[in-house]
Amino acid sequence: xxxxxWSLILSLGVLPLGAAAEESTADESTEASVLETVxxxxxxxNVATIPGSATLIGTEDIRTQSYSDINRILRRxxxxxxxxxxGYGLFPNISLRGVDTSRSAKVTxxxxxxxxxxxxxxxxxxxxxxxxxxxxxxxxxxxxxxIQYGPHITGGVVNYLSTxxxxxxxxxLKALYGSYNEIRTHGFVGKTVDTDLGRFGYxxxxxxxxxxxxxxxxxxxxxxxxxQTGFTQIEPMIKVMWEPKTDIYQRLEAKFGYSNLQADExxxxxxxxxxxxxxxxxYSSSRFDNIxxxxxxxxxxxxxxxxxxxxLITTGYYSQFHRNWFKLNDLRNIPxxxxxxxxxxxxxxENGQGLACLKGQLECTLRVRNNDRSYYLWGIxxxxxxxxxxxxxxxxxSGGFRYHEDQVQRNQLDELFSQNTDGxxxxxxxxxxxxxxGERTQHTKAYAFFLQDRIEWGKWGFTPGIRYEHVxxxxxxxxxxxxxxSNTLDLxxxxxxxxxxxxxxxxxxxxxxxxxxxxxPRSAVRDGLDEETSTAWELGVRYxxxxxxxxxxxxxxxxxxxxxxxxxxxxxxxxxxxxxxxxSRGVEMALNFDAGSAFDWGFSNPYFVSFTYTNAIQNNDAxxxxxxxxxxxxxxxxxxxxxxxxxxxxxxGLHFNRWGIDLTGNYVGETFTSANNTTQQINGxxxxxxRFGKTDDYLIFDVAAYYxxxxxxxxLGGVQNFxxxxxxxxxxxxxxxxxxxxxxxxxxxxxxxx
Length: 754
What we know:
About 5% of the residues lie in helices and about 50% in strands. By secondary structure, it is mainly beta. The protein has a 26-stranded antiparallel beta sheet that branches. The protein has a 5-stranded mixed beta sheet with strand order 1-6-7-4-5.
């Protein structure tokens, strides 16, 4: 059997210098090489040779603080901003280098190299993310991601790495109990065995998380379940592989996963005054709110190396996703007022009549919507990697094709809850037939191609590449048949990077790339939107010597036809628009140092600092005059909403033979929450609106400790936000929302061979 490493070189097209001439031994880890073909970065050592900004968060980085919230994990990555929403990371809003944060719609999200958003083309604003607590790593690539990945590459790519199949038998179990009655367990068992038919491997995994939540709902005469603000999350997975004994290397791998979430979560925030008194309060009108989601996902991969210089990787994938967010949508029949949206009510409109309705102090009607939507995606992807030497240059040529299809279908229903002056619900009725509140289908077919060459010449490296996608979009709206139609897009991206290795310690790189982000079918067909494009430059330097490493990167990205979603958390027109031009520039810095290793202290004393400065500025006045949109009435020179100027993550630890402790701090600067950069809860039309204003700057600390009982068992505990800082992280979807308060936990971790 040929060497696994030859057959499974990074399809990213980036190898350590000199890798072309390096033969691997027969006992080298096959699983590690296989992962690299479907990973964005691969082995951590590859980061030092990528001609662009790249970060790999490893298993220990995730486990140290027992994080399951992707927001907290990504804080450590420079150039990444997250807008929290629920305090647990269930609905992340991720921005890379200044792109719009809304529902991570401008970031390509993947798990094991497969698109993981429910419908990344047809409905990119995702209400699903894999649980970060079960992952073995997280990869983040900015800048050079525009070539191999799509469709949303104006910012970059985030790739979740699921638990790999162990090379030797292994069993793992982690169990925690924490504040708000949180229970969390994560376990897996797997191994690889040699047989006469070849190598077989498997891993069986389960993840469970349940909590009562950290908010409390106001009492009502007919309601007293005040702790009904938590969630239950279940994610099992199975992964199997077979490497037959043949003259050429082959590997067949299959994965099956399932996710279920039941969360008593709401879009509704608080009024400014009530937030200052108790940010963890919820009004009684939100007591019916609940989101239920289910996702089934699978892929089948085939790796083959017909020759030593050629590798082929074929992936077929499929997932289906269903969610129903039953949530308060707006208010009806307010005496003397009529109807009112939630953000206006929280802002105190109409002398506080709407706010009184939300608090159960006024006779009115609560209109609650079944946001019932079904999604699917499937596709097949073929990648090829070919290695050759031409004169004094080594080339690794990689190319690929992907056919992808996805769809989202709405079938929504409104229900009316009649409330008396005591807050009692005395009647419940449907507001028309199912579908009246939204009945439409958005469907997309996409054909994607890329070609990239990694060229190595002495100490120089060059990585040019191009990407092309042909997208066919269809819209069918049963409530507005005049909007039905089709649209096609031809999208181009590409660019190149250059790097120079001075010696074993220093490397410099620079790159220039063009990216794109397509509109949804409805935005393209009905609203006539163009794709968002970006032109991104970056210049960086890396240093790595023993226990110290550093990376400093300057970036400048020009966005054109920025796509913004008007109705995330709003009840306005719902129109998405091309906002215009935005410039985002800044500096990223990452430093790592282990003083214990440097000074030979006999124990480990690591330090890290991750710093980001970003200046994201609007280059034109906003076209939108819809007062419901946070992007309306923006002015040239204003800052982009929810992009802080400064973000810093830092930490240190002490690790001895049997015990250790780690301290992490995160600082995030304040942000404007609207394009018109107002500090007041007033929209561009001068009307009260709780989504307008600013977020807080905040500094929070997390601490974690462990004691190694034996080589197989560890007890652990920690406190997140141990200063119990109260802070406002978002004004969307509707009104001020808090970050998580102090959260303490304890538990154990076991890992042993089988």
